[in-house]
Amino acid sequence: MTSPAADPWLSPWLPLLREHAADQPVLELGCGSGHDTATLLAAGLSVVAMDLSTEAVRQARDRAPGARFHVQDLRDPWPADATNLGAAVASLSLHYFPWHVTQQLVARIHHTLRPGGMLLCRLNSTDDHHFGASGHPAIEPHYYLVDGQPKRFFDRADIDHLFSSGWRTLSVRSPTIHRYAQPKQIWEIVLESET
Question: In whole angstroms, what is the distance from residue 64 CA to residue 67 CA?
Answer without folding.
Answer: 6
